[in-house]
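F.,

This is the one I mentioned.
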């Protein structure tokens, strides 16, 4: 049903930390998610990664636990936030029947029976699905149509809100830019993306500007 490959490396964590420090993206995304989450109900975030949104939601008074299977990112999330909300939990193993499930850029929701699997543990899912067209062209496959088909096949209903947020990548040098693009994007886009790297007047001398488009789906089922 899913790949066991780990996305995160120490270098990717460092790039992501830089981008997060220089952007309001996590605060803005959390504010949008708060329009879809019910504050009085507990939340289990699956595939939380570095857990920035979970940290913000906890600060805003939401009852949240954030889960991943990558111990390295869970330790980094705890080190940064100091919050005891991060747990090691397999999204496809037994879940603790949360009131609502949250997923942000979750990689496997389009796979067969994924939506049905998660709706067997909760009747409410809020997910932020990236469109992967943030550089002005399609950088990875857009899975939204397959997710919507999976929702229909599960007999569930959904509401959709589309948002665009700035999440540009600060870079230390042109070689840092090349390493970042090689690590995070398909090879066929490397040359095109390198041409988009700009000189920057801020803390970091170079930047790859990035506008992230998401579909925020609120999926509900009465079954």
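My design for it:
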């Amino acid at each position: 049903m899913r790949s066991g490959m780990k996305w995160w490396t120490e270098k990717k964590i460092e790039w992501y930390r830089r981008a997060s420090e220089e952007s309001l993206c996590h605060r803005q995304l959390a504010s949008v998610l708060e329009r879809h989450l019910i504050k009085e109900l507990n939340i289990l975030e699956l595939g939380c990664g570095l857990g920035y949104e979970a940290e913000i939601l906890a600060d805003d008074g939401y009852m949240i636990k954030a889960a991943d299977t990558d111990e390295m990112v869970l330790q980094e999330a705890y080190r940064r936030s100091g919050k005891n909300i991060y747990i090691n939990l397999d999204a496809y193993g037994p879940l603790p029947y949360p009131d609502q499930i949250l997923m942000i850029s979750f990689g496997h929701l389009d796979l067969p029976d994924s939506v049905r699997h998660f709706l067997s543990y909760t009747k409410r899912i809020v997910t932020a699905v990236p469109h992967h067209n943030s550089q002005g062209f399609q950088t990875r496959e857009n899975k939204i149509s397959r997710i919507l088909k999976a929702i229909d096949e599960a007999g569930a209903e959904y509401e959709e809100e589309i948002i665009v947020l700035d999440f540009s990548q600060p870079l230390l040098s042109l070689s840092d830019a090349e390493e970042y693009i090689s690590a995070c994007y398909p090879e066929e886009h490397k040359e095109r993306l390198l041409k988009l790297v700009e000189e920057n007047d801020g803390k970091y001398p170079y930047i790859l500007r990035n506008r992230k488009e998401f579909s925020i789906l609120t999926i509900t089922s009465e079954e």
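The first strand starts at residue 43 and ends at 46.

Talk soon.
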